[in-house]
Amino acid sequence: MIKIIEKYEIIDLIKGAISEDMEGYGDITSKYLIPDKNISSAYIICKEPEGAVLSGLDIAVYICEEIDPMISIKFLSDDGASLDNMEGICDIKGPAASILKAERTSLNFIQHMSGIASLTNRFVKIAAPFGVKIADTRKTKPMLRKVEKYAVLCGGGHNHRFGLFDGVLIKDNHIAAAGGVLEAINSIRTNVPHTVRIEIEIKDFDELDLAIKGKADIIMLDNMSPEDMAKAVKIIRGKQEETIIEASGNVNLKTLEDICKTGIDVVSVGALTHSAPAIDFSLEFE
Amino acid sequence: MIKIIEKYEIIDLIKGAISEDMEGYGDITSKYLIPDKNISSAYIICKEPEGAVLSGLDIAVYICEEIDPMISIKFLSDDGASLDNMEGICDIKGPAASILKAERTSLNFIQHMSGIASLTNRFVKIAAPFGVKIADTRKTKPMLRKVEKYAVLCGGGHNHRFGLFDGVLIKDNHIAAAGGVLEAINSIRTNVPHTVRIEIEIKDFDELDLAIKGKADIIMLDNMSPEDMAKAVKIIRGKQEETIIEASGNVNLKTLEDICKTGIDVVSVGALTHSAPAIDFSLEFE
Amino acid sequence: MIKIIEKYEIIDLIKGAISEDMEGYGDITSKYLIPDKNISSAYIICKEPEGAVLSGLDIAVYICEEIDPMISIKFLSDDGASLDNMEGICDIKGPAASILKAERTSLNFIQHMSGIASLTNRFVKIAAPFGVKIADTRKTKPMLRKVEKYAVLCGGGHNHRFGLFDGVLIKDNHIAAAGGVLEAINSIRTNVPHTVRIEIEIKDFDELDLAIKGKADIIMLDNMSPEDMAKAVKIIRGKQEETIIEASGNVNLKTLEDICKTGIDVVSVGALTHSAPAIDFSLEFE
Amino acid sequence: MIKIIEKYEIIDLIKGAISEDMEGYGDITSKYLIPDKNISSAYIICKEPEGAVLSGLDIAVYICEEIDPMISIKFLSDDGASLDNMEGICDIKGPAASILKAERTSLNFIQHMSGIASLTNRFVKIAAPFGVKIADTRKTKPMLRKVEKYAVLCGGGHNHRFGLFDGVLIKDNHIAAAGGVLEAINSIRTNVPHTVRIEIEIKDFDELDLAIKGKADIIMLDNMSPEDMAKAVKIIRGKQEETIIEASGNVNLKTLEDICKTGIDVVSVGALTHSAPAIDFSLEFE
Amino acid sequence: MIKIIEKYEIIDLIKGAISEDMEGYGDITSKYLIPDKNISSAYIICKEPEGAVLSGLDIAVYICEEIDPMISIKFLSDDGASLDNMEGICDIKGPAASILKAERTSLNFIQHMSGIASLTNRFVKIAAPFGVKIADTRKTKPMLRKVEKYAVLCGGGHNHRFGLFDGVLIKDNHIAAAGGVLEAINSIRTNVPHTVRIEIEIKDFDELDLAIKGKADIIMLDNMSPEDMAKAVKIIRGKQEETIIEASGNVNLKTLEDICKTGIDVVSVGALTHSAPAIDFSLEFE
Amino acid sequence: MIKIIEKYEIIDLIKGAISEDMEGYGDITSKYLIPDKNISSAYIICKEPEGAVLSGLDIAVYICEEIDPMISIKFLSDDGASLDNMEGICDIKGPAASILKAERTSLNFIQHMSGIASLTNRFVKIAAPFGVKIADTRKTKPMLRKVEKYAVLCGGGHNHRFGLFDGVLIKDNHIAAAGGVLEAINSIRTNVPHTVRIEIEIKDFDELDLAIKGKADIIMLDNMSPEDMAKAVKIIRGKQEETIIEASGNVNLKTLEDICKTGIDVVSVGALTHSAPAIDFSLEFE
Known about the structure:
6 copies of one chain form a homohexamer.
Chain A: H1 7-21, H2 30-33, E1 39-46, E2 52-53, H3 57-67, E3 72-75, E4 82-83, E5 88-95, H4 96-127, E6 133-135, H5 145-154, E7 168-170, H6 172-178, H7 181-191, E8 198-202, H8 205-213, E9 218-222, H9 226-239, E10 244-248, H10 256-260, E11 266-268, H11 271-274, E12 281-285
Parallel strand pairs in A: 6-11, 7-8, 8-9, 9-10, 10-11
Antiparallel strand pairs in A: 1-5, 1-12, 2-4, 3-5
Helix pairs in contact in A: 1-3, 3-4, 4-5, 6-7, 8-9
């Protein structure tokens, strides 16, 4: 996979972001103080002591194109790359007033997406030796799911379903409405597009047995202790080699290693997208 | 101020957020497993051990109205309220499938906005005894500035300018382009709408003198040590009682008290909106 | 599944459809000739000799609500129902001018969607005795995929993936780029969200062997003769009970029975959505 | 007239069509399997045995431009041209993954629009020797009226009014509300923009007499037998040479010739746009 | 015709207008000073000494509904009515802060639309005794054509074509491209939808002869002296009773009477929509 | 300040304006009469006897780019320039049919914006000798505030707040709700972003005293006689040198000079944007 996000995928988001910074009279400081269109040079650097992973660099280009086609950008790095402190990620040339208009919106994308990529990468480094994938969730910020889940990929993570529409996840309310675990699995298998897998969240070992019996494609072990998880994995693997086992709930950088040791396949982590702190980037003029 | 965010202000954001969760076939799990429209009861609770401040509750209502007018919500709390662990914030009645569709999108708003309100409140509690205001910045997530800055208010914080359009902030590039601090202030005073104040960011005591001479309305002390800040405050107050003094850069929960002691009026903190971790909320069916 | 399409899912489509009929001055005939808002009664009937299946009735309601809240509609049938010739599907009350504005746009949805439901139903009646599902494809009309695929469900059909985003389908170009069938399946299995199944289109028996070896979840037999299909089914079932087998290409009402006899699970048919003739409906005033 | 549809006229439709195929994660098959941007060659051919007329070729270009500016297209035919079986209509060069993303959306436009152009052309060939025009109606698919009516032109057909806004058509409800045929015609003549003609649908010879007396510009003979049509034409021509006479209702490829012989000027046919089957096109890589 | 403009016709315009007044933080004055939702009473009065004609009253309702459903409005007048100085046009009840938010946007519509209705009415009063219609043009403000042309109707005026799409007007460039007046008329008659009339602008008596020979439906006499107009009318009426004759160019309240005396049917006046001064309205709290 | 309006700021307005002129079938006259894309030459001239100031020239370029990239424009003047009668403002080259499509929409912007710039300039010429600024208001046309306020700058005027969001203006209802002038000023000062000035409208000398005591940044004297204004200015200047004094109400070209003589700083004039007559421009082909 080449780590790029295409312009047509996010152009409305970019326009919205520019617009919220420049309603009404636009940039009232620069328009009166920087009256000409002479070309200046600038660059963006990472100011994070360590562990930063880049995400969102293409978006800076799209923002600049939208604001002023006279701006040009030269990449010094790529999405997915690890960054040193004070490392430059791109050089920018263009009218100073235009660069100033593009600055904050561009940095807001990059600092947020790199924050997610960097946090993801810390989880991935722990899980990778166990062959376990770190997956995101639907716990994303409104309107930003596409870029946040792309940032998870940049950090080495793995995508879970995007929304309610591209993956089945049967939870307790669905089970209750359907009249039981087996009934739920069978009903969904009959009706849902045959192109998606059927995942079920189980809350105890009775439900686990039924999920195995129903041949669920993916079994989610939610909020289990590592001991119970290990026991569940053993039960599942004994009956159905191919079933994908996912762990979820109470996952953090401290508990992750013990979870990975249980033999599960995937760990899904809401914090990747709902609580990653921003990475510090700065745009400097030469 | 009543802490509400009106529906017309954020309806496009709400539609966008619903849409990213339910493209294509919509909720493929619930539509096949929960076929009827019988009324269920549910509630949302806060699962944060301590220090949570609520923000975004109205938005849950708007999301539910959009998805199914049969859903009704009863508030048990209000935006701006401090929440105990396991405290319920609202009761919900409606068709189970509709509630499930609204669940994640609603929680994504509330957990994020309450995260910002709660972090803001921690800063506010330190600064308030000194009569210092905690202000946000433009370092927000794309498309979310309106709700994030509303959340800052819920946490007891204060809003800085919304974007480039509703406040003047003269930075080094503007000064360079204008030919000096005084030239920049005078030029902007002549041209900009007379309804906005003129703020200037100064980097040393020479620039400070010029900013005072130019009668800047607001002087921003950026990345100064508390000692230099105190010195700067003394110089400004000696000449111009009314000038608003703002501190910025390297502000965190540890450094804040020392900064407040210097006598400044406002501290602006990017982390409020770019790095607040989410507060944990959960929707439970009865 | 209750066969309804929710208003928020298609409101933009409805607005667009109304708008293309009433740009500029709006309905220039009715606005000058029917000046009052007295309440008239009307109804919609099906004028198809036989075999019609209804789809799109909710949409008539949404269109009328958008044009004039004074219009009310009473359902006499439901989406998915078989219709007799001259059978009424709904009664309408409201101002005559408003009903006339809503008439053509409402009928355009119903006649097109019922056309798809009706054609689908003809395929389903042949395939059902063999336990074979009739599935749609991505060969839909621009902007109408959601309503067209909903109409397929109304006719008793089954949905394939909605778009490129919610199902994997590996075709010859993907195989060539990946360096072979096994390489393609393995690469996609490592990377793609674990919530979707992996489908591969195979063109001969060599590729079939590799697809089985790679444990593809779904194997598509494209443009094969019924004899070759039967042979392929036998090979697959001998090795992997669970694999879903899909037939595609050269499927019509005459060839369908022979295809179904081969033991495949699903037949996908582009014509359901790209070539279904409209069903004739008419709105009559009382 | 040059048969082109300009990009600005349909860009929103194109964006909507691309978007419904690539929500969420986009093309999940190609993005993981075709990682580079090397240039491939492909072409689109018509696979219809006979009678196909091309429409929509420009749209393929606009879709490709939107998805990836690295794609270039060379036309081998033009909208309005008759196509032989297996005739190529364009050559395409660009990154394989980008071409695959553009493929289905492009073909969906071309197959549908060419379907309409081809069916229109069959009607036109029958009517042309009699100097009769074949016109479309408002029985179009939602949101597609512009492209469908353009396709009618490509097939040699003629456009009726686009919507309710650009032509007057007085029907029975209007006559009833106005108090009679003459009253309706006079009232509309007084009020409606003087730039549109006044058309009236008549149901018997009494109404015909009044329509002639009222000097209607266009008289529509709806669902009349050819014999009655011929009689009506004779009556009209005897009194008002210039009146345009339109036939409508129960028109198909079998009944058309008899209708044309009656001396009417225009025949309007709903089936052109509501029931034209798709023409088969295929994109092949070299 | 009832003079109302339906909500669905202008809702996007209303949302846009509200939005340009309340971006960013919204109404920063009222939200901090009027914290409760107690119900206040207000009314809108006309402050124009004489000659005011009302237009746009429905729009005030739609704006208030959008901002706060707690606002209710009672009409005291109707669109198209003549207003006395200080006459009240509606009573308003609702939360004071909500009324203040709706005030300026509502008045901006009403003052502008009533300005157009009032100016139109002054032209209509001069022309009506001669049986001449006063028509608008396409010289409208961007995005406001629908409401401006509706205002012309409120003032007693008549609508010309809405845009380029619903009426033919052949000008000198079209004549040159087609190779002559007759060629242009014949070519357009063959191709254009038969539902629109054919209008031609002629610049001298040679062109007039050809336009009559070509049986143009409408002949526009552009920038002619009243003497030449009278001569042209005589020539046209002598040959083709039914032709509609339109005068245009250099029309104002002083020249209008002489133009009307020439026997033309319609006078089109750009100033109605491009230069009407606003009528003064004021919202007062009780 | 360079007087340009950037494309991204107004592209939606431009698209909307083009669209209202070319719905449905588009330009039905030109598409049938001007079939080729040969390049023609044209130019736009000002036909105003005197006093015209140009505004909106960039917009013509953006409209042409949107309609047909084959059109090119060469500027002969700039926004803000004074124009002689019959002076050319730009040369245009491109396909004649495309220029005709762009003509009216371009002229509608330029004639309206130049109308505002020209009227503004007449006020500015009177006020400038007194060092008084002429400011606009929120009395603008719906959706056009951005371009109308830009036009005010082109005419030498000054911008007041853009909307309710970027400036505080305390009026009588706010004072009543807050419980008095001082209470209102103090409450707003505590809460509102510190980046905006606090303006208050006072209706008598008692309120004036309180406004001075509350240290309002801007005091608006509304509908005062020049004598009272002079008295108020004297009182304010005697206590607070820096307060900005704004006059409003009953301002026209006749009363302006007397108002300016009173010593106020700014005069705000609603008529600039709500009642400026259009300037006459014409597009001519060579």
